[in-house]
Amino acid sequence: MRIFITGATGFVGAAVVGKLLGRGHQVRGLARSDRSAAALLARGVEVHRGNIGEPASVVDGLGGIDAVVHTAFDHDFSRYEENCRSDERLLETIARTLEGSNTPLVATSATTVTTAGHPATEEEDARPENPRSASEKILRHATRGLPVSIVRLPPSVYGRGDTAFIPALIALARHTGISAYVGDGDNRWPAVHRDDAARLFCDAVEQARSGVRYHAVQDEGIAFRAIADAIGAGIGVPARSLTEESAISHFGWLTRFVTIDAPASSTKSRALTGWTPRENGLLETLETDGYYFVGPEHGGE
Question: Among candidates 41, 94, 92, which has minimal Cα distance to 68?
Fold first, then answer.
């Protein structure tokens, strides 16, 4: 297949590109900058120049495409709600462009759109009050004949090159001298290695089910204190409990994420696709994959 992918040079998207190429697909990647375009060309990827903030520039690249994988998202959390609405607009524009073509569309959401406090399943609808649920409105096109599906990612998608939550927590622990958690730290984070997540995206686009949500989850729920303990041991600072009141000033924008209790199951996803995670779990990866090395070629700093 010839597959168009947004976020093709991002942390998850770049891994998806690699897996798609490895499975023999042709890939056309969205690139906003000259640097991104050059990186894609170096991998043998066809380049389409555009910007996710300008939907028309994205859909111009859909001609002659057999499938679309949308992994791009603006992770500026100071504009989180606005970015979620922008993602909804882009997906709606793509879906309307694809209507009547029977072209599979695989979009991205988060496991945290479901109700917290229990292992979320793929059958659970997104809570409308969660801003990220806007991306899942695209599933309504499944009733209009478009084979559209969603891959939900957990809070931690980890691995070499990670620039998200785990590196932010490591940097904060280095800066403050403590690796903190809130209360007793028993709130749970699901997690997945980026390469395993990429394999599920490939399975989803190849199998082209419609109206299905997948959970790219390897670790169903790791107690946040265990993550804080691992980070503390990794950089040589103590792990310490904070009250909910002091957590806000310590964690800042990270507070909403470090306090969630949002385990998630991937049982249905595994049964439907045959997907099985192959990589090390998060805690083992924290010990082995360069997270504490301060250098330009390593994820973590």
Answer: 94
